[in-house]
Amino acid sequence: MHVLIVEDDVALATNIGEYLEQQGDQPDFASDGAIGLQLCKINAYDAVILDLRMPRIDGISFCGRLREKMHSSLPVLILTARDTVEDRIEGFEAGADDYLCKPFSLRELYLRLQAIVRRGRQAGHVDRLAAGIVEIEVHQRIVRCGDQVVDLTPIVFQMLEMLVREYPGVVTRTQFEREIWNDEPPESDAALRGHVHRLRELLRQAAGAQVIRTIHGVGYQIVDPR
Predict the structure, then answer these.
(1) Residue of 113, 165, 173, 219 with fewest CB within 10 Å of its CB?
(2) Has residue 124 got a pLDDT over 60?
């Protein structure tokens, strides 16, 4: 997952970010709500972890602008020390998907994060994704690379969707294995390498250039050949 952490407490943000990285995910950071909104405009995130008490633009205003002005249904998990019923209602009415009170367990945070991302994908929060010259219409399973439509098998499509969602970040082998084989990958990595090779060649043929880069010892990422 590509997750934006909007939190002005540097120590807490770093702690959450390190935990996400340990799970194979990619965190980005914003120290206030204004920076967070700017990042949401230019990057494709799977979810936002949002503190309520933020400089410049607070968490409630952040949610309101995200939903009403940017027309985004990006999943948002609010973190706050305010735990009254009224506070929670205010957060949900602003457009939050879940609410977690401080102090909290990082494990619980991660499970809640996975849940809102999963619900968002099932509900179709994001139907059109783009990374460089690659575009995906998720529900229709249509892939375009430049001006070409590319036909993919279900597994290869799933891999490409993961790469596009992480763009410009890297999808690790562990992430692929977790999503595709539910943490029970084949004994050798030949199957994974075969799917990646197939995807790489199909996109190369459509683009006339390499679109997928191997980061040796880490994983794979989409690059923009333009």
Answers:
(1) 173
(2) no
Residue tagged 């575009």 (tokens): 135
For the full predicted model, state whether its pTM sits above 0.70: no
Residue 109: φ, ψ to 5°: -55, -45
In terms of phi and psi (left: phi > 0; alpha: psi -120 to 50; beta: otherwise), the region of 141 is: left
If you write DSSP's letter for every residue of the chain in order, what string do you get? -EEEEE-S-HHHHHHHHHHHHHTT-EEEEESSHHHHHHHHHHS--SEEEEESS-SSS-HHHHHHIIIIIS-----EEEEES--SHHHHHHHHHHT-SEEEESS--HHHHHHHHHHHHHHHHHHTS--EEEETTEEEETTTTEEEETTEEE---HHHHHHHHHHHHHTTS-EEHHHHHHHHHTT---SSTHHHHHHHHHHHHHHHHHHTS--EEEETTTEEEE----
For 200-221, how does the pLDDT look when each residue is reduced to its tens digit (9 = 90+)?
999 999 999 999 999 998 899 9
Identify whether the C-beta of residue 116 lies closer than 8 Å to the C-beta of residue 98. Answer: yes
Contact 96, 47 (CB under 8 A): no
Q: How confident is the model at residue 67 (pLDDT cuts 50, 70, 90)?
A: confident
Which has the higher per-residue pLDDT, 177 or 151? 151
